[in-house]
Structure formats: structure tokens, C-alpha cells
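Sorry to interrupt, but I need a hand with the structure work. Please put the record directly below this note.
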Amino acid sequence: MSSFESAFPGLYVQARGVAARILGNIGDAEDAAGEAMVRALLQWPKIEDQPYRDAWVMRITVHVALDMVRRRRRVERHAPIVAEHTGATEPIETEIVVLRSALVAALLELPRRQREAIALVHLVGLTPTQAAAAMHVSTSSVSQHLRRGLTRLRGQFGELPIESNLRMA
């Protein structure tokens, strides 16, 4: 069995979880994880023996998921507005959807490195050292990007404990 075939199940499950946190929809998350795994397969000879391999795949997953959000927004802006009643939703579910949407929008506004650092540490769950390896920067650089990015997010959300909310599935 090739190393990609043996690594695929674990990487796919991780990627799907990360994408679900961003997209809030398991079907879209599976699509994003699938695309990230295709990209990983194409780069596998270069990354298979690297210590940051898993983090690289998660970083690609974050990019794919955020691209899906961007495409969705473009389509929503250009599509006619259709009022549709889907029945009552639980207030807590509505709050989570609204918060997730606001967080994704705020993440998309951050500079790329800040967005990557926050996603890898707070969505994927990597340590700053692991994120640094995946991003090909120093740990102090990751710490700086995290600090700056979280400061900007806190500025938008006030005293909201942003780190714990980023982990919502």
C-alpha cells in the first residue's frame, strides 16, 4: 500500500473536520476535504516525508474552504433573492450560524499569513511550532501573525472569546 493510501483516511477525516468548522455544512466540508486531498496527492512526492505534511494538507483545506465561501458570496450577490420559509430553527443554532458567518467573513478580511496562522492554530489545533513548519516561517513569526490577527478579530467582535468560538463545529 502506498504511503498516500495509508495516510488518506486520517488526513481526510481531519480535513473534513476543519472544513466543517469553516463552512458549517458537512456536504460542503466533504467537497473541500476531497479537493484538498486531490491537491495533496498531486504534491505527495514532495510532502510525504516532510514533518509538516499533515499541517500542509490542513492549510490547503482551509484555503479551499475559504475559496468556497468566497464563491458562495459571489453567487449570492448575483442571484435573485428568493424568500424561502424553512420552518423554525433553534435560536442557538441560528446564533452559531450567524457567528460562524461573521467569523469567516472576518477571517477573509485578514492578511493571508494572519489568516493561515489563526486557522492552523485555532481551527486545526496545531501548536505554533507545527504551524510554523507548515507555513515555512519561524515560530516567532507565527506568534506575531496570531497576535496581530486575533487583535484585529477582537477589535471587530469586542470582548467575545474568539479563540473558543473558532473551534465550533
About this structure: The first helix runs from residue 3 to 23. The two ends are 32 Å apart (CA to CA). The CA atoms of residues 154 and 160 lie 7 Å apart.
